[in-house]
């Protein structure tokens, strides 16, 4: 049985849950690598990454390199004398870093690789209407999410799931899988599985183009896209109302199959309900945010905002 000295690399809340699970279960974490502090908010006050905040509480040594090839950083990394590195939601590592420890560097990815390699696997699984996803641990190589697979665990995607709820489920599942992977390596019985070179479905970065709703798409596709972006970064559209165009963010929605003669994108507003006509049905808007206003439920919006007869989503 190997005596492991672990370096953990990660930045957001998703990574904190995994690091916390390792610390709480007495795994020997000898150092934490995370992103540099970033200015945020109006005062441009330096904001510490979530992983750093947790590591400070646990009195873990922290490194925050801006350049992962910097000689001083590489020396500091060597001085931690780790023999295993774990990466969760960090950035691409240079070969000199991932090859450093004796037992390698493994990554946790929130999909069932080789599907959904890339930056936003949880979002795209829901957007594409998948009914199953999971988490994968794999040894890092010189490409993105292509290394040899160690372990996988799958989970069902409910048809009401949002990226927020699925993110939290995969975070907990991932924490257990990382610990299981460490034990696997510690016991020296590591069998890996090579990934095929090509994946069928990818998970590219989200941007303003691929998060905009096309109201002429199918009822199912629109519903999946909105919940796959709820609550972050959120799907968006533009409302044309009273000769004005207003950008809106869309959060909780329901779908309703129905036959109708409305033009696609037509907004139907009553005192209690706000919905948009789409092919073969309606998208019922339950939570929405108009530009410059707070996020609110549809009923609250309808109390203080009126839609014209020709109001529509563009």
Task: Provide the fold topology.
Blueprint: E1 6-10, H1 13-24, E2 29-33, E3 38-40, E4 45-47, H2 50-57, E5 62-63, H3 71-79, E6 84-88, H4 95-98, E7 105-109, E8 117-118, H5 121-127, E9 132-139, E10 149-156, H6 163-186, E11 202-203, H7 219-227, E12 235-241, E13 244-250, E14 253-257, E15 267-269, E16 274-278, E17 281-285, E18 287-290, E19 296-297, H8 298-304, E20 312-313
Parallel strand pairs: 1-2, 1-6, 2-5, 6-7, 8-11
Antiparallel strand pairs: 3-4, 7-9, 9-10, 12-13, 12-20, 13-18, 14-17, 15-16, 16-17, 18-19
Helix pairs in contact: 1-6, 5-7
Structure description:
With 314 residues, the protein is of the alpha/beta class. It folds into two domains: 6-203, Rossmann fold; 219-313, Formyl transferase, C-terminal domain (Methionyl-tRNA Fmet Formyltransferase, Chain A, domain 2), CATH 3.10.25. 25% of the residues lie in helices and 28% in strands. The protein is built from eight helices and 20 strands. It has a seven-stranded mixed sheet, with helices on both faces. The mean pLDDT is 94.
